[in-house]
Amino acid sequence: MDYLNRLARFLDRPLFPWKKLILGFSVGQFVFESLLSLRQYQVLRKTKAPKVLENEISQETFDKSQAYGRAKQKYELINGLWGQIQNIAFIQLDVLPKLWSWTGDLLLKFAPARFTGEISHSIVFVLTFVLVQQALSLPSSIYYNFVLEEKFGFNKQTPKLFVTDMLKSNMLTFILAPPILAGFLSIIKKTGNQFFFYLWAFAAGLQVFMITIYPIAILPLFNKLSPLDEGELKTNVEALAKKLNFPLHELYVIDGSKRSAHSNAYFFGLPWKKHIVIYDTLIEKSETQEVVAVLAHELGHWSLGHTTRLFGISQLLVQNLSTMDADWMYATYHFSHPHLSERLKALNWTSSEKVGTDEPEVAKATGRDEL
């Protein structure tokens, strides 16, 4: 660990230009990401679908997808600018050091002596900063849900549900964050330069704990999980799981439609006991084989040992008005998966019939079975 000591001595110089360094990185990242967004915005101005998609979607669907993409890019540019203004203000005005001093004064004035130590101070500081950040981001969150998503028919939240979700999230943060932060800080304080291993062990145990309590204590606060009814979909998903030796314990349907019209699916659980969750909107809008294809994609990641989050296959992407084409630099930086047209090219997808403007169904095509 000698290199850590040398690095600490180098960075701990009184005249080290911390502000300029951090500000430079922050502005540089913002400029780079903004340039990528502008490149993507130009792609979203196209009026003709990529060749591989010409027979797969109607012009109306493509136009709506492009309009949705442009609206999101504008939002992200403006929201990013607002975030960058905050970063510059926080750095230049020493907001975090002042917040640290202010929360310390609060503890000295109002808390018992045993709660005025470094760990208690850090917990109060972090929780206060969370509330500050939430207040600053609240206007953009309201706009995103109740203006942008509402305009394209995706938002299903009511103002009451929005506020209730926010209060529940804060409650969970104030319950879970203090012991977790106390654990991390205590380990660092007591183990010195050997803290890496101990933090890893603590984080691994914490992950198992959170996975265990998530479906029992956290998820029911926000959504309702119901066992998937017997039928063709359940039979096919169970057969897929058995084929891949996936340790499926239970199949659930989640009431995602109470907040959004977007479709999704995911799985969670311990390595030996997994649960698959399918949004009710995905079941409602998709054929059985399309839902199975979405899950096959995700279980394929699990089977190959990839880090897993769900990004749906073609039907899911179309329903969500996801990006159907993308600037290559933007996609390299932002996408963990190829966008829709690249996926179909990789499958040598060829359509057998043209989708008309009056028929929103996806055309049957050679290559569908391979999905």
TrEMBL record:
Cofactor(s) demanded: Zn(2+)
All copies of domain Peptidase M48, residue ranges: 227-318
Principal EC category: hydrolase
GO CC field: endoplasmic reticulum membrane
Molecular functions (GO terms): metal ion binding; metalloendopeptidase activity
This enzyme's EC code(s): 3.4.24.84
UniProt remark on cofactor binding: Binds 1 zinc ion per subunit.
Broad class of where this protein is predominantly found: endoplasmic reticulum
Membrane topology designation: Multi-pass membrane protein
Catalytic reaction list: Hydrolyzes the peptide bond -P2-(S-farnesyl or geranylgeranyl)C-P1'-P2'-P3'-COOH where P1' and P2' are amino acids with aliphatic side chains and P3' is any C-terminal residue
InterPro entries for this protein: CAXX_Prtase_1, Peptidase_M48, Peptidase_M48_N
Family matches, as Pfam families: Peptidase_M48, Peptidase_M48_N
GO biological process: CAAX-box protein processing
Annotated localization: Endoplasmic reticulum membrane
UniProt keyword Transcription present: no
Keywords assigned by UniProt, alphabetized: Endoplasmic reticulum, Hydrolase, Membrane, Metal-binding, Metalloprotease, Protease, Transmembrane, Transmembrane helix, Zinc
Top-level taxon of the source organism: Eukaryota
TM regions (residue ranges): 123-146, 166-188, 195-217
Annotated CAAX prenyl protease 1 N-terminal domain residues: 40-224
Binding locations of Zn(2+): H297, H301
Annotated function: Proteolytically removes the C-terminal three residues of farnesylated proteins.
Family indicated by similarity: Belongs to the peptidase M48A family.
Protein's UniProt name: CAAX prenyl protease
